[in-house]
Amino acid sequence: MNKDLGNKLRSLRQSYQLTQRQVSHQLKINHNTISSYENNKFRPNLKALYRLAKFYNVPLKELLSELK
């Protein structure tokens, strides 16, 4: 699995100085899920990617490009 998406999600979260728990609370996603996305254990589905893109204020295309 490509590690770019997890690194991108971690970088975005850290740029907002947020913890995984804070992101999970805001998005109503289990914090273990956020961790799994960032550590490339699981790949978010399209709905989750959309919510993450909206939350981090980045175009969905930017996150999708990390899946190559």
UniProtKB/TrEMBL annotation:
Stretch forming the signal peptide: none
SMART domains in UniProt: HTH_XRE
Keyword Nuclease: no
InterPro entries noted in UniProt: Cro/C1-type_HTH, Lambda_DNA-bd_dom_sf
Residues covered by the HTH cro/C1-type domain: 9-63
Keywords of the record: DNA-binding
Pfam families according to UniProt: HTH_19
Annotated protein name in UniProt: Helix-turn-helix transcriptional regulator
